[in-house]
Amino acid sequence: VSATAGATQQFAASVTGTSNTAVAWTVSGTGCSGTACGRISSNGLYTAPPAVPSPGTITIIATSVSDPSKSASASVTITPPAGTTYFLAPASDGGSDSNSGLSTSLPWLTPNHALNCGDVITAAASTAYSAPNFNDGQWGTVTCAAGNNVAWLKCVSFDACKITSTSGQSGMWIDKSYWGVQGWEVSTTTGASYAPCFYLTPNYSTPVQIHHLILANNVANGCQGSGINVANQSTTASIDYVSLVGNIVYNAAQSSSGCQSGITVYQPIQSDSLPGTHIYVAGNFSYGNLEPSTCGGHAPTDGEGIIFDTFDGSQGGLPSPYSAQAVADNNILVANGAKGLEVYNNTTGAAHAAIYLRNNTTWGNLTDPNQPSWTDCGELDINAASKVEAFGNIFVTNSATGCGANSIYAMSGISSDGTNHVYNNFAAGMSGHNTIITNSGTFAFGPNNTLGTSPSFANPVPPGAPRCGSASSVPNCMATVIANFTATNAAAIGYGYQTPSSVQTYDPLFPLWLCNVNLPAGLVTMGCLTGP
């Protein structure tokens, strides 16, 4: 017997030899416990779990109420929701939204079609895709009753579908819920002021809250306004449940019109109060993001590898802080103009997001000579933030000075507080500049940080522009970068970026809704087991 994740199925049991024919129903599994195995009502209606357990087989047992020694069982295999495959191509290859989209000979031109979660739009390999066909207003409504999946816009093969925006528009602007994009390469060139390569934000003209978006296995290669920019559009419309998994972001802060970074998550708004990780940034490679000498009419202020920016909503006047869980996990962030990894503005208001920074590798950031004379600059920067927990990371500087010719540090804490916990990290700063804390109350680094000891990276050099060619995935394209920034000091081998495992594990920081979406293999370790 099989059941689709999130679906219902009726079971029945008969009892003979007694007038009391009632049964008690139970459900269990070796790869799950409790409701993670699903639920069954007193009349035998089984509701499969929203996430497929691993292993994906559960057992339903009907036990006689009159004689509990008598029972019968059924084995049920939980399967992901099935979907319809559609096809897409540029206009020069026959793409038209008047086509059915159901064959390669009748492809759609845009993703502006009504779909269901589990559906896949397979895009033909081409460099002729046009940015206006993938901007706001060009994404269809996706129906997702279980709320735990996406419709995919998937290139037929990794890095074979390319967009170059020269018109001032973003390369892709996703403004609807329940969408995932994988396998694309996007650039926004000079003239595309403010334009991110990938922009995840509500529609500009009629902003409404959006949620459940995924970017996986994509390349942002040369961008004006961030490689990936996740942002609010108003005080009531932003994004929640976003996963940025296994992407490359390079040279993505070129705009002089505004100051930008490699990967930015700015002022999210919660769509619900459910527990677990809502924002997940994992397995990405963000490097070489250096702003011009002036941006926004002043000296550059950004250029981070990854920044979780103003979750308390204080810059945009949001009515309440974002207080759901966010995670930056297993990213490589090197040779950026500003900090490698920063959490900024998470103190205003009564509730704050719990932010976890785990197994990230940063090296040689803070390269921008035009930054203002900041002090207390660090590869890791916890700045005006609460409830940040950082562990298992490697933070290494490549210079004693930077950040406007000031001293730079492996780890810095500025205007923070004792709710932050930074422990069990490798942190090595040049000239002994390992840590610095300013105006942060009872906050202290530790315990068990290894300070001033080099992880001895194999070959730490700034990577060049991504040239993925015949590579099969982002990790495959970045194999040399991964090798170069692998620690050879035995004491540091378990820290920083770790090669994703194909074996599922228990991980309380992993968003369980991703267990249903059929992520490309090898980007992250799937943490879908429901118990240690």
Question: How are the SSEs ordered, and which strands pair?
Answer:
Elements: E1 2-4, E2 8-10, E3 23-29, E4 39-40, E5 45-47, E6 57-64, E7 71-79, E8 85-88, E9 115-116, E10 120-123, E11 126-129, E12 142-143, E13 151-155, E14 161-165, E15 172-174, E16 179-182, E17 184-188, E18 198-200, E19 210-216, E20 219-221, E21 228-231, E22 239-245, E23 248-250, E24 263-266, E25 277-282, E26 285-287, E27 306-309, E28 325-329, E29 332-334, E30 341-346, E31 355-358, E32 361-363, E33 377-385, E34 388-391, E35 394-396, E36 401-402, E37 406-414, E38 421-422, E39 426-428, E40 435-438, E41 450-451, H1 474-477, H2 479-484
Provide a descriptive summary of the structure in words.
- There is one protein chain.
- The protein is an all-beta fold and 532 residues long.
- 2% of the residues lie in helices and 33% in strands.
- The strands form six sheets. Strands 8-10-13-16-19-22-25-28-31-34-38 form an eleven-stranded parallel β-sheet, with no helix packed on it. It has an eleven-stranded parallel β-sheet with strand order 11-14-17-20-23-26-29-32-35-39-41, with no helix packed on it. Strands 15, 18, 21, 24, 27, 30, 33, 36, 37 and 40 form a ten-stranded mixed β-sheet that branches.
- It starts with a strand and ends in a 48-residue tail after the last helix.
- 55% of the residues are buried.
- The mean pLDDT is 94.
